[in-house]
Amino acid sequence: MAKQGTLLVVDDNRNILTSLRYLLVDYFARILTLDSPVTIPTVLAQNEVDVVLLDMNFASGINNGNEGLYWLKEIRRIRPQAGVVLFTAYADIDLAVTGIKEGAADFVVKPWNNDKLIQTLVEVYNKVCAQKKEKKRTAGKASRTDTAMYWGNSPAIRPLRALVEKVSTTDANILITGENGTGKDMLAREIHRLSNRKDGPMVVVDMGAITESLFESELFGHVKGSFTDAHADRIGRFEAADGGTLFLDEIANLPYYLQAKLLTAIQKRSFIKVGSNLPQPTNIRLICATNRDLDEMVRKGEFREDLLYRINTIHLHIPSLRERKEDILPLARMFLERYAKQYGRTNGTFSPDAAARLLAYPWYGNIRELQHTIEKAVILADDGELRAESLQLAPVTEKEEVRAAGEKAETVFHTLDEMERTMIQQALDQCGSNLTQAAVKLGVTRQTLYNKMKRYGL
Q1: What is the DSSP letter of 291?
Q2: Using CA atoms, how far apart are residues 49 and 43, in angstroms rounded to an integer?
Q3: What does the pLDDT average to over 140-163?
């Protein structure tokens, strides 16, 4: 076979290191050896190591014979994508089994069989390569981005930005709250971009779009034959996000009885694939987001209090666009430039009346509504300058009056979309934002309701 990949061998017996180098030189492109584990962090930081062959005990170490487990955890922390094979004597097989539970790929017993050792290391390397390919594919679907977030400079946003810059480099679980359309997903991507995990994948999961019957398969994966349509093994979102960030959007939409399964995975930092009995460790940074009041849901018995504590180590609240009026025009200009380029229009400006209209409008749909408004205006505009009428915004007084009356008063609808949006909002208000109850009231499925909410920015 062609030589490929980088192998790191850590053992305090230099004779063993020499023997292994001669044995494995035909199988790995690079072989690094260490006779002490102390420099493991430095070597991992300076080299793209694919597989580590790690001795379980060292002549002088820590943890009373558990050195291997300690350094296993360090390797998993520093380079989670590397496969670790434990090197152990017969007397330490129990420790090796514990190591498998802690994230090691396999173990080899001393004195070793050459063919068995080579086979084990090559299989682990191939598995590492396969996981890298799968993560790249999944990360492409997960909307990974290196583009910096536009913050604005309003007094309402500055404290949030300072807090984000402080906590992004930690691995603390983060809960992002804010109204629909405020940019919770953009903030999650910004946190990932600023984190130490930025080179790892960011996997986004819309909790409202996952059907309840496929929840475990989507998040934890499944093995071939575990259910009727399981024709092949499939990795879940937890495994795809290993070494990176897992973003669970709309976390409040997760049904109560499924919240316990998510809590277990977060607490144990491991998961079990559907159809398997083997716990698989995971190394993720968890970010969750919601537009609902989780504390109120806990009081109503709709959200687990222990799960809230787990996901809410750091709480970040995004202010509404109404609270940061200084950022409205800079954001509008940014969208104007983007869509003018996208649709081949003259990169125009806002007329004074259009600028005033933008500032006066309440923007209940926040940044998402502003973005859609500018996009539509650019498409319909005839020249470079956008005037107030091009924005097609409803009069503020009418909008305010309808909202103040709880949209129960008689309203003049201009389109079917406006009528549908109002009916959905009324159903959500009457059902206390319970999606299942609102869907029943409207005579649609929960998924259809959720899709329409996304469409109308509710």
Answers
A1: S
A2: 8
A3: 76
Q: In the chain, where does the domain assigned CATH 3.40.50.300 lie?
A: 158-319
CATH of 324-393, one of 3.60.10.10, 3.40.190.170, 1.10.10.60, 1.10.8.60: 1.10.8.60
Of residues 169, 382, 365, the one with CA closest to residue 285: 169
Fold of 6-131: Rossmann fold (3.40.50)
Residue 109 near residue 89, CB atoms below 8 Å: yes
Pairing assessment for the beta strands 270-271 and 106-110 based on DSSP bridges: unpaired
370, 335 Cβ separation under 8 angstroms: yes
Give the CATH fold of the 158-319 domain. Answer: Rossmann fold (3.40.50)
CATH 1.10.8.60-classified regions of the chain:
324-393
pTM for the full model? 0.61
What is the average pLDDT value for the chain, to the nearest integer? 84
Half-sphere exposure for 95 (CA within 13 Å, toward CB): 24
- What is the homologous superfamily of the domain 395-458 according to CATH? Homeodomain-like (1.10.10.60)
For the ranges 135-139, 171-175, 193-197, the lowest mean pLDDT is seen at: 135-139
Q: C-alpha angle with apex 448: 442 to 449, nearest 5 degrees?
A: 50
Paired tokens of 256: 């109560």
Q: Which two tokens stand for residue 177?
A: 């709250």
Q: Alpha-carbon distance 142 to 289, whole Å?
A: 16
Judge contact between 280 and 270, C-beta under 8 A. yes
Positions of CATH 1.10.10.60 in the chain:
395-458
In the DSSP assignment, the letter for residue 385 is E
> Cis omega before residue 111 (within 30°)?
yes
* DSSP-derived secondary structure for 257-273: HHHHHHHHHHHHTEE--
Residue 253: which of 418, 403, 436 has the closest Cα?
A: 436
Contact, 51 vs 126, CB < 8 A? no
Cα distance between residue 307 and residue 175, in whole Å = 11
